[in-house]
Amino acid sequence: MAKVESKTTLAKSDLPDVLREMLLIRRFEEKVEERFRAGELPGFLHVTIGEEACAVGVCRALEDGDVIASTHRAHGHTLAKGTHPNEVMAELYGKQEGCSHGYGGSMHLYDVERGNLGANAVIGGGLPQITGAALAFQMRGESRVAVAFFGDGATNIGTFHEALNMAQLWKVPAVFVLEDNHWAESTPESQHSPIRDLSDRAKAFGMKAIKVDGQDVEAVYKATRQALDYARSGKGPVYLHLDTLRFSGHYIGDPQVYRPKDEAKKLRETRDPIELLRAKLSMPDSEFEGMDAEVTEIVEASVEFAKNGTDPAPEDALKNVYA
Amino acid sequence: MAKVESKTTLAKSDLPDVLREMLLIRRFEEKVEERFRAGELPGFLHVTIGEEACAVGVCRALEDGDVIASTHRAHGHTLAKGTHPNEVMAELYGKQEGCSHGYGGSMHLYDVERGNLGANAVIGGGLPQITGAALAFQMRGESRVAVAFFGDGATNIGTFHEALNMAQLWKVPAVFVLEDNHWAESTPESQHSPIRDLSDRAKAFGMKAIKVDGQDVEAVYKATRQALDYARSGKGPVYLHLDTLRFSGHYIGDPQVYRPKDEAKKLRETRDPIELLRAKLSMPDSEFEGMDAEVTEIVEASVEFAKNGTDPAPEDALKNVYA
Amino acid sequence: MPELSYREAVRDALSTAMRQDDDVFIMGEDIAEMGGSMGVTHGMLDEFGPERVRNTPISEMALAGAAIGAALQGMRPIAEIMYEDFMTLAAEQVVNQAAKHRYMSGGQLTVPVVFRTQGGAGWSPGAQHAQQLEAWFVHIPGLKVVFASTPEDVRGLLWSAIYDDNPVVFFEHRTLYGIKGDVPEKIEPIPIGKARVHREGEDVTVIATGRMVHESLAAAVEAEKEGISVEVVDPRTLQPLDEETLVASVKKTNRAVVAHEAVTRMGFGAEVAAVLQYQAFDWLDAPIERVGSRFTPLPFAPIMESYVIPHMETVLEAIYRTVNKKA
Amino acid sequence: MPELSYREAVRDALSTAMRQDDDVFIMGEDIAEMGGSMGVTHGMLDEFGPERVRNTPISEMALAGAAIGAALQGMRPIAEIMYEDFMTLAAEQVVNQAAKHRYMSGGQLTVPVVFRTQGGAGWSPGAQHAQQLEAWFVHIPGLKVVFASTPEDVRGLLWSAIYDDNPVVFFEHRTLYGIKGDVPEKIEPIPIGKARVHREGEDVTVIATGRMVHESLAAAVEAEKEGISVEVVDPRTLQPLDEETLVASVKKTNRAVVAHEAVTRMGFGAEVAAVLQYQAFDWLDAPIERVGSRFTPLPFAPIMESYVIPHMETVLEAIYRTVNKKA
Ligand SMILES: Cc1ncc(C[n+]2csc(CCOP(=O)(O)OP(=O)(O)O)c2C)c(N)n1
Ligand SMILES: Cc1ncc(C[n+]2csc(CCOP(=O)(O)OP(=O)(O)O)c2C)c(N)n1
Ligand SMILES: [Mg+2]
Ligand SMILES: [Mg+2]
Q1: C134 catalytic, yes or no?
Q2: Are D214 and D301 part of one and the same domain?
């Protein structure tokens, strides 16, 4: 209990580390964009630039034993949940050393040992499974929480409704984290949702909702702790609404014809979660640059690691279909 | 416009006719139960005893050109929407004279000419189609409303969520009629829904909700008019919540082991929509009995009609698969 | 050997597993107080309580998905989908999630879940309550597919399905719940992937599933009267498929009929026919006959319904065709 | 004859129909400003406006269902389901509703709706973005199923699908959008139910769909070098299936290969093989070869993905097998 109490807010001394983590995700994603454009990465990729505080704030707040389900926009969640950048990058290169051993790819990052039950390329696809994982925790009397990430666009799909409804009905220890970046691909929220505050979705289930600024990593952390404590104590699931921003295109290569040219740029100037924390910490430029160099090196190394990774044999494709 | 105004409430003089209609449905359903038990009716049947005021109150309020989609509990809606009892009964007997020509059966009653787009044996199955029909009305600038019936149990299925969400997003002229009888088969509302007032479902979409006593046919009619007017005038869809009661088993033959033995009986004593209207009208017993005899005769005749109907030829099964 | 109905056999497998293993539980619509729409779980609420005999809201997708999620945590849930037709609502979770998690994770996850469902016509439920969709799931790598036709098989196979570490789609047939049959005293697991030769014969092999096993056995008796010796084989598990047994049988009889209640077009019989013509090409003395429902949705009127679905006579006609059509 | 890409051909059919007919409109996710995830509807928003090129929320079930509802009112909606994998989410509406309304109503309703979708591997999207599920819909009476492989065919067939009074599931192949081909000046409807003989040959018939038509044509050129004359036939519409043309071809060549990208097991090729062995039994000199994806979900790593899906070489090997295996 004491341990839980003490983690209700982030310690000041932890904040530089938090900043480093967000910066790592940022640099990782920028590198992924670069390597994709260089033609090195196959498949279909979505980066989380602008939303780093959500991934880091939520995952930092989790206890050992808690599990997550991620989305198509999975790199940040996976890194924040503790998977080494080498393993994430190796997966994007389709290598055996990748966190899904080359079977998954960007939209299917897994790291079960670290409680990451996997990213999902089907919108809403992971949500009922989080309800089910939480149900297992409840039935077994385990003090664990299951956490699902999803986007604003996902609040329109039936899977979302059924999964949250069931979770509330059975009061399972789950937290449903809405990363509300106000876009579903090219579709602005006003075109995909009839309501202007997506917290209202929770009212259909009578679920406790918490809404915070998703660009403020401390606020995200704090709200997540609150949600986790609530869920863990048996009061039922929580709907955690993070108000965030997508600075990049929907996928890498998206020309964003549907979006005012300078919208993202302008938002970035005032609402960059990394800059906001950096300012809050009044971190001297030199220190920030040192940190930046450090994470950039990690990211560079992850590319090297990935490129030197082992290609699967073609016949490896026949493995893992059945247990 | 004047016409619409004048129909906002039921004229006193119409009430005996309303009573007759409800009584017809009641007697029809009782006869169906009887004939089923006699082994004459194949398939899977659900009667609407106790919920007659919903069917009659809603359907009376509709204008020509409005359409409905019904549920597995369809006999009442179909009769109230104007299909002759002969045709409904003939359908239950699988005859060519049936309103679906023997292809549909109890859970698939259709009468397209009368605006009945069909009953649906899949919970929630008809809802998106009502959104779509209403969209067609909107796109064509037609002053018509599309109406879907559904039960409390149906508010748990993704189809419901997606269909209502889309309807509200596009502000189509639809009315979604919840016949809340507080049971989904054997599952009481407390076991299938996390919220105690199912009107709250509408909040997830920001949809206008109206709730009334579903045992009071005048109230149902009035609320429906209000909903229809709202939808027809382009303001968007309405969620019409009718609080009602199921006096019978879920399906014919249901032993209702899950339900306190005298629950239905007690409810019937005080909340029977037919008795309530009869009392309101202070209808003399003799008049009521005359009416009863009249509708009973219609129902008897419908059985005769059905039994004398034409059996389809086996090979007729090959027709109507494609247009 | 005790006698059990098909319904009781399913229940026995469920209850026995739940008695011995806390990780096994069942969830579905109206399975608790009501005992399920087919009465399969009747009485189980009393023994196991509402946590483990869990009524769910009408949410096929979430019910399937929640079972998957619990399975990912090492439980062994059985999700009951009331009618096979509603598998269409759970399809995303079954096909994109349960079937693929192990693979997409490169072997990190196992998904020991069973999706029990039932269907089948012959009682005029109409077009949305009796489809047979087993073929869909046979097409999906990562799933196992079982379709049992007798009390003994349904019990032994359900047992194996519960303890299989893979997602299993388990089909029961609505019109079989009442049939009775001898079962071993103690549950004997039946391996997934082994066909059952119900009846040996020399002239033609009938490969049948579900209700059609019984219709085929009856047809075999009729054919015998005409001097035609019929072997009847039930694959029992459609995925994996015991090709060896099927092919061996056809290499012996040189003729094959495949019978199921699902629509013939693109039904499971197509796969069996494709396998047999490939592996037993030189042994076949006649084209492989397919027996299944005619190409229509299910009509309501009993006269039409009976015309659409296959019966003993339909199998018998196919047997006659195949023995006359000598190569 | 103008040249169009497959993508432009789809767009041309859509736009032309929308120009001539107010009842035709298209709805789907991100089809407006973005022009769809495959760029098919690029530019159409400007011409037709947001009502008729309608972005929808991520609600595959309701989007399919709303299209059905509008079709019931006599409109001719085209619902775009972004990836075939998400047809699992719309399956209930497509299978239980669109396919059955006419039948269940005894002929009162018509459902002139098109469900356009696309899939296909070869670009490492992983297991949930490239499945080929056409076989599922071939199994459902009441649906028509189209799978076009060339710009000319996709345009003429989409036109026919839009004006067909039945629900049509219309498959496009992701890797074909860029291919170019001549098309008639004016759109010529291509009848649903007519196969296309792409290339005449004497020794073996390859029946192929989607991407595999092109792989098969390339294989035919290779086989020719070895003195094997290959006929290549694309059924184009899987339901109704032009059995006549397929059977006639096989009666001529006496050998058949069926090729599609979907998993072989329970894939469309099973149905074709079952039909051919039945109708051309006495003409077949070798077992019918089936070419399809191996029995795995789609792996991400390109090396593995390429191993799983079929290519020109896979077809060629099947051709070689069938000509060597002389009866
Ligand atoms: C069921 C389904 N439909 C459509 C898609 C295609 N798709 C991928 S991401 C996306 C938008 C998701 O929006 P949101 O949930 O807000 O997440 P974001 O991309 O903004 O992080 C869509 C439509 C999909 N993956 N799954
Ligand atoms: C998708 C689906 N799941 C399950 C069923 C089986 N079923 C038929 S009626 C019913 C209960 C419906 O409850 P409600 O919506 O409240 O309607 P009511 O029967 O009370 O009128 C169920 C579960 C079904 N028809 N469709
Ligand atoms: Mg978003
Ligand atoms: Mg109810």
Answers
A1: no
A2: yes
